[in-house]
Amino acid sequence: QSTRPLADRSPEEIEAFLAEQRAAHADLAARGLTLDLTRGKPSSAQLDLSDRLLALPEGHVDADGVDTRNYGGLHGLRELREIFAELLWIEPEQLVAGGSSSLVMMREVLVDLLLKGGVDSERPWSAEEKVTFICPVPGYDRHFTLLEWLGIETVTVPMLETGPDVDAVAEIAAADPSVKGIWIVPTYANPTGSVVTQEVAERLASMPTAAPDFKIFWDNAYAFHHLTEDEAKSADILSLASAAGHPHRPIMFASTSKITYAGAGVAFVGGSVETVQWYVGHLGQGSIGPDKLNQLRHAQFFGSAQGVRDHMVRHREVIGPKFAEVQRVLEERLGGLGVATWTEPTGGYFVSLDVLDGTASRVIALAKQAGIALTPAGSAFPHSDDPRDRNIRLAPTFPPLEQVTAAMEAVTTCVLLAAAEKLHG
Ligand code: PMP
């Protein structure tokens, strides 16, 4: 097919192009496909990589001689915290190993802040007239729905390749004391794949904020999830914030959901020693200790921080080809036509596709007609409101490679058809 931009074509050419894409879409719909690119889940081949866990732990006593079958140990197993503290560049005292979900920990921390206030708060956040969070967009849908559920207001800033638009963030945070925090996925962000640079991290850590207890929710869900040998290093946000005189500003989260098992991994929350004490104090009101047997088997499975890094290379070998396939199909089918731009992530779980303004929901509806499930339009924005109706999040890890190819070919047909409809008017 011609690769001349659609916008440069004559009305007759657009007419013909539209007819071609309609026919292609009709063929697609007739094939009765059922394919799914919605959620960033590990594939079963990835889960298989961790099946040695099913035969662990060996014994049930941890490095401190504690019987992990019993109650206790709210901070989590020391040997597992040591491994992940090294990977996250913090001290083990700054890290808690908990249950299987970091998202649950994010919810706990927000609820604790609302009900009790943070270590540096003047009062509980719920006693404020209003609480607002800065949301870089596109971002992770569950971050936004969690805020909505808690009645926290949102203000958006653009997510750039280097992290959030930090000038916009600094301006908003300095001006409004109701602005209490920001979501940051610092490494291979969901869905853009952006990596927060050292400069952006320094600004976030040091910027003046109108709220004295401003929090950076540093959700490092994809810290080790490299897709190439060019491995991004997360900025050391806790040291930066400490050096800038805001030691309690960052609260970091991570988990092994996409390292071992997404339903039976281990999640972590970290921060200043005071923040950790604050978190554990609240946790202890509802828990006598985590699943230490699961933590023990994870510690034995990895053995060391290097064990985690080595394991992530095996993930990369499984999912790298799927991401390469997404790029190949996008480039071959959409390249040069001026109908879409997309990210080329070097890690994480997503590709963020921007189609012509006003056509994302149409593309998603066309895909649905053809049996391809895509994340609902606007998902990556608070209140599902993508003001330009252009963003589509693609998640290629779960389906087998041949399904990624088929799904992406179908998606590109829908992008072309929606673009042709728009230009035809
Ligand atoms: N944060 C981000 C940015 C994510 O993409 C995800 C998973 N989709 C999570 C958190 C969820 O993490 P967990 O499984 O530890 O709850």
Structural write-up:
Helices cover 41% and strands 13% of the residues. It starts with 10 loop residues before the first helix and ends with a helix. Helix 7 crosses helix 8, helix 11 (305-334) crosses helix 13 (401-424) and helix 12 (360-369) packs across helix 13. The mean pLDDT is 97. It is of the alpha/beta class. The chain has 2 domains: 6-46 and 310-424, Aspartate Aminotransferase, domain 1, CATH 3.90.1150; 72-303, 3-Layer(aba) Sandwich (Aspartate Aminotransferase, domain 2), CATH 3.40.640. The strands form 3 sheets. Strands 2-9-8-7-6-3-4-5 form an 8-stranded mixed sheet, sandwiched between helices. The protein has a 3-stranded antiparallel sheet with strand order 10-11-13, covered by helices on one side. A two-stranded parallel ribbon has the order 1-12. It has helices at 11-30, 44-48, 78-88, 102-116, 141-150, 166-175, 198-206, 237-243, 273-283, 292-302, 305-334, 360-369, 401-424, and strands at residues 35-36, 95-97, 132-137, 153-160, 163-164, 179-184, 215-219, 250-255, 267-270, 340-342, 351-355, 372-373, 391-394. A hairpin with a 2-residue loop joins strand 4 (153-160) and strand 5. InterPro entries: AspAT_Ic, PyrdxlP-dep_Trfase, PyrdxlP-dep_Trfase_major, PyrdxlP-dep_Trfase_small. Keywords: Aminotransferase, DNA-binding, Transferase. GO terms for molecular function: DNA binding; L-aspartate:2-oxoglutarate aminotransferase activity.
Summarize the structure.
This protein has 425 residues and is an alpha/beta fold. The protein contains 13 helices and 13 strands.
